[in-house]
Amino acid sequence: DAGVIQSPRHEVTEMGQEVTLRCKPISGHNSLFWYRQTMMRGLELLIYFNNNVPIDDSGMPEDRFSAKMPNASFSTLKIQPSEPRDSAVYFCASSLAGGNTEAFFGQGTRLTVV
Amino acid sequence: GENVEQHPSTLSVQEGDSAVIKCTYSDSASNYFPWYKQELGKGPQLIIDIRSNVGEKKDQRIAVTLNKTAKHFSLHITETQPEDSAVYFCAASINNDMRFGAGTRLTVKP
């Protein structure tokens, strides 16, 4: 398996624009996580899914953020409208069975909002 | 929710010395404690993990200890090498909710 695949690797956008980050988890994994990494706040859990169902989205910072998982092989994280403070590296991770097994991380998407 | 604290934030050691990173957690129900290594430009990668029914685990130069009573766990790296230089994260997990520490930047000087 190629591992967790995220796209794009880098995204530069203007404030107010919509941004969509994409993730393909490892085949057969039942859980998917979205994290945000910044120097100030470290790795923050935004939302996680089990069997395509959102379980906990309490980490999503605002209503501007939304995440979907329409099927077992694809998830999106959308920011609309984007703001400069959303600039960060966004990681997607997947695991076989929730947070009590190894989470495999993608390479991340570096988002810059200018 | 779970709160994980990690110390130190930066650590510099001489090649061949040992490095120790410590973490504490708040929720006594947490039962899974992984450690991740993150190299520049990459996502975190698991290096070792321990479950709450085990007090210590070792894998070559890496070991992790867990004290459930005190709610703290530690990563020990012996005979450090320059390629060990990276950012290390501890995490604590309860059910499906995994929370990370702030990270430790380890530098191993040749």
Secondary structure: elements and pairs:
The complex is a heterodimer of chains A (114) and B (110).
Chain A: E1 5-7, E2 10-13, E3 19-24, E4 31-38, E5 42-50, E6 53-56, E7 65-71, E8 74-79, E9 88-95, E10 104-105, E11 109-113
Parallel strand pairs in A: 2-11
Antiparallel strand pairs in A: 1-3, 3-8, 4-5, 4-9, 5-6, 7-8, 9-10, 9-11
Chain B: E1 4-7, E2 10-14, E3 19-25, E4 32-38, E5 45-51, E6 56-59, E7 62-67, E8 72-77, E9 86-94, E10 97-100, E11 104-109
Parallel strand pairs in B: 2-11
Antiparallel strand pairs in B: 1-3, 3-8, 4-5, 4-9, 6-7, 7-8, 9-10, 9-11
Give a description of the structure.
The complex is a heterodimer of chains A (114) and B (110). Chain A has strands at residues 5-7, 10-13, 19-24, 31-38, 42-50, 53-56, 65-71, 74-79, 88-95, 104-105, 109-113. With 114 residues, chain A is mostly beta strands. Chain A starts with a strand and ends with a strand. Helices cover 0% and strands 59% of the residues of chain B. In chain B, strands 2, 4, 5, 9, 10 and 11 form a six-stranded mixed β-sheet that branches. Chain B is globular and about 40 Å long. Classes of the chains: A mainly beta (114), B mainly beta (110). Chains A and B meet through strand 4, strand 5 and strand 10 of A and strand 4, strand 5, strand 9 and strand 10 of B.
